Amino acid sequence: MKKAIIGGTGVYNVYDVTEKRELETKFGKAKFDVINVEGEEICFFSRHGSNHSLPPHKINYKANMAALKAIGVTHIYGMVTVGSIDLNIKEGSIVVIDDFLDFTNGRDATFFNGENGVVNHVDMTDPYCVNLRTEFIKKAKELGVEVVKKGVYVSANGPRFETKAEIKMYQMLGGTVVGMTNVPEVVLAKELGMCYSAIGLVSNMACGIKDENLAQKDHKGAIANAKVDVTNIMLKVFKEELTQDKCDCLNAVM
Q1: How far apart, in whole angstroms, are the C-alpha atoms of residue 162 and residue 27?
Q2: Taking every pair of C-alpha atoms in the chain, what is the biggest distance, in angstroms?
Q3: How far does Cα 17 stand from its chain's mean position?
């Protein structure tokens, strides 16, 4: 099994889960589903757990990514629900993320803790796989789905929403969207040599962009159509024979 989707529930509306699996890693237990798409098995991970019980700062990112590596996954798409910092990117938009700003804290964010007596570093020139991003944009065009081709993801710690002052700071730093889960997920994938691309689904304008209470927003409703489109695009990409010779994801660790 070489392909995986993390996050989102839209997959369940189209394809049946053929198997539920549980894998014990040295970092903890990981649970995931297997769906069958035209004869090919694809791993589906619910990032927050099947009943959405894990807050962003409590997700066992290392166990999840180690499990994907252990079952042979090489290509991953991650769906991330985000708030827009950019006035030109409205609710329901789809953003192909190409960079990030990390404002998380206290997370176990690396496999390189020196246990093997070696100091490792990972290159972040292209945190998100160039090939998976390119293929997503290409397939979106084929399906007639409009996407924002670039975006900087600001990773906040959560679970609280950001303040107006924080959002203003993120704007000044060049942020496009804000969320709580993509770091360290993207970093861990890169450390393990897996191709990873994150697709942002805009559920709301970030705090202070509009005069509204974010707790009262229908976040799921705002991205319902986008989630279906994103799922279809991802699966269309996954129908192709994907290799790791069109990117540098295998050569990022020194």
Answers
A1: 30
A2: 52
A3: 21
The answer to whether 186 touches 196, Cβ cutoff 8 Å, is yes
pLDDT for residue 10 is more than 50: no
CATH no. for 3-251: 3.40.50.1580
CB burial string 208-246: b at 16+ within 10 A, e below: bbeeeeeeebeeeebbeebbbbbbbbbbbbbeeebebee
Tokens representing 45 are 């991970």
pLDDT digits (tens, 9 = 90+) for 96-144: 999 999 999 999 999 999 887 888 999 999 999 999 999 999 999 999 9
Domain boundaries, the chain: 3-251
Q: Are strands 94-96 and 195-205 parallel, antiparallel or unpaired?
A: antiparallel
- What DSSP element (H or E) covers 136? helix 130-142
203 and 91 Cβ atoms separated by less than 8 Å = yes
For residues 29, 118, 107, 63, the Cα torsion angle rounded to the nearest 10 degrees is -10
Nearest to 12, CA basis, from 237, 198, 227: 227
Tokens standing for residue 99: 């960079």
